[in-house]
Write a structure and sequence with these properties.
- By secondary structure, this protein is mainly β.
- The protein has one domain.
- Helices cover 10% and strands 46% of the residues.
- It has 4 helices and 10 strands; from the N terminus they run αβββααββββαβββ.
- Strands 1, 2, 3, 4, 5, 6, 7, 8, 9 and 10 form a 10-stranded mixed β-sheet that branches.
- Strand 6 and strand 7 form a beta hairpin.
- The longest helix has 9 residues.
- It is globular.
Length: 259
């Protein structure tokens, strides 16, 4: 049986959202799978479909005292096809139970989503998905601080057959309040967004029909590494974008610190 005869192939992992752009978290993935997509292309097609929220003049600023890190799992199971995985409704309960071994689900955790993940078989002639093969159900939590989301801090759990835990990845900072900082308005932040001044650079262009449907104030975690001497957080405006169905949704993030 040749490729010419069947015209299909398994292309690899496809999440049920953010397929084309390859975003494992939109939202806001907390660790190496980073919840901030690398986006900074053309914003000509970007439209605003949300009211600007009321903005404070200042917001609390915090020092990162320490970061709890957990990275455990079975890599051999990560991309193998399963007979079945937990449903999106069942998965958060199973994930919370699994976290009991690691001190439980923190009270500052906010459920982002529970998403079945598949390997898809595509028909290359019709460009249609012919079959889906389950590999895991991913449950994601983000950390909140003073009720606001922290980009880059959270928990990811992948569940397999019979509620098996494939992996758990956690980045959970502990903070100390050190004062306040002035922030820009969401209108000013939107102008920065249109000028490509996002916290992460974009690969490619924004699809036609992309709309900003929600705007929130939050923080972004920068972890110590080659580009950062020490871990710290910065106030940010988060512009949640709804894209055409093939692309899913994602956040655009700009620094909210007033200069």
């Amino acid at each position: 049986m040749t490729m010419d005869n069947k015209k299909w192939t398994i292309l690899g992992l496809v999440l049920t959202f953010c397929v084309i752009l390859g975003i494992a978290i939109v939202g806001l993935i907390p660790h190496e799978r980073s919840d901030i997509p690398a986006l900074q292309g053309g914003f000509d097609s970007l439209t605003l479909d949300s009211d600007f929220p009321t903005s404070p003049i200042v917001m609390p600023i915090y020092k990162v005292k320490s970061i709890e890190k957990i990275n455990v799992g079975n890599e051999k199971l990560a991309y193998t096809v399963k007979k079945s995985t937990p449903s999106a409704m069942e998965a958060p309960v199973i994930a919370e139970k699994a976290l009991e071994k690691y001190g439980g689900l923190p009270k500052e955790a906010q459920l982002i989503d529970a998403t079945p993940r598949y390997i898809n078989k595509f028909n290359l002639t019709t460009n249609a998905v012919e079959e889906k093969y389950p590999i895991s159900t991913q449950v994601r939590y983000r950390q909140t601080l003073s009720g606001m989301p922290v980009i880059g801090a959270g928990i990811d759990i992948d569940l397999g057959e019979n509620n098996e835990i494939i992996d758990i990845m956690k980045i959970w900072p502990v903070y100390e309040r050190i004062g306040e900082v002035k922030v820009i308005s969401p209108q000013e932040g939107f102008e920065k967004l249109k000028s490509h001044e996002t916290t992460e650079k974009v690969q490619g262009n924004i699809p036609e029909g992309t709309k900003i449907t929600d705007i929130k104030l939050g923080y972004k975690l920068y972890r110590a590494g080659p580009e950062e001497k020490e871990s710290h957080i910065t106030p940010v405006w988060i512009y949640y974008a709804s894209m055409p169905p093939a692309y899913g949704s994602m956040p655009f993030v700009v620094d909210a610190t007033a200069t």
